[in-house]
Specification:
Number of strands: 15
CATH superfamily of the largest domain: FAD/NAD(P)-binding domain
Shape: elongated
CATH class of the largest domain: Alpha Beta
Helix content: 25-40%
Structural class: alpha/beta
CATH topology of the largest domain: FAD/NAD(P)-binding domain
Strand order of the largest sheet: 6-13-7-8-9
Strand content: 25-35%
Length: 222
């Protein structure tokens, strides 16, 4: 695993791995993604990537026709996810924070679709061998679900944080690496592509990587 990238006075990058080996390069493409921040509640990690899923398109088929609990953190997620999930199941429950507001018209629409809304903070995921059985709320209430659609927050890798400190790498307001249209960062010779710039998905990440590679090749002939 790469743990550090430094830039020498001659413009050459030195890339160091965790086994202390290093290589030198004129150009570097950062494609290290980001780290999910797992919820610090019992049962979350045990069920993660099995019956707690972050993407219905990736894992929805395996969890089809189950009772889904959708944990939403924003109005956008509330608008999109309950309706989207109906492609995999008709049994949907939504969990929102106590302070989130719902328009009465949208509340009526969810009721019409037989989607229940629960206000409260989930404090425990009850499961058997990574299979979710229910969730416990801070109020003490227990709600039966089989699958949780729950997108955790993310944070940059330690490598990105190190590059911010050592090279002055610029991040955007969300903490992702900033690039220009050629995928180059503010550090000359250092490019970035993929989820390190935010949630891009495989196709966009591959395309951005191609743009970075093409930009590097063009510089060879400038």
């Amino acid at each position: 695993m790469i743990v550090d990238v430094i830039k020498e006075e001659d413009g050459i990058f030195v890339i160091t791995a965790d086994n202390q080996t290093s290589i030198r390069a004129k150009k570097v493409v950062l494609a290290v993604g980001y780290h999910d921040v797992y919820q610090d509640i019992p049962g979350f990690v045990e069920c993660w990537a099995d019956t707690i899923i972050p993407c219905p398109f990736c894992d929805g088929y395996e969890n089809r026709d189950c009772v889904w609990g959708i944990v939403v953190k924003s109005k956008m997620e509330l608008d999109w996810f309950p309706k989207m999930a109906q492609n995999w199941t008709s049994k949907i429950k939504v969990f929102i924070s106590p302070n989130m507001e719902i328009e009465p018209s949208y509340q009526n629409e969810l009721s019409r679709l037989d989607i229940s809304v629960y206000r409260g903070i989930i404090t425990k995921v009850n499961h058997t061998n990574t299979k979710v059985k229910s969730v416990s709320l801070e109020s003490g209430e227990t709600i039966q679900v089989d699958t949780l659609l729950w997108i955790p927050p993310v944070k940059p890798s330690q490598l990105i944080q190190r590059l911010v400190e050592n090279l002055g790498l610029e991040l955007d307001e969300q903490g992702y690496v900033k690039t220009d249209e050629k995928q180059q960062t503010n550090v000359k010779g250092l490019f970035a592509a993929g989820d390190v710039q935010g949630s891009k998905g495989a196709l966009v990440a591959a395309n951005n990587g191609g743009i970075a590679a093409t930009s590097i090749v063009h510089e060879w002939y400038d």
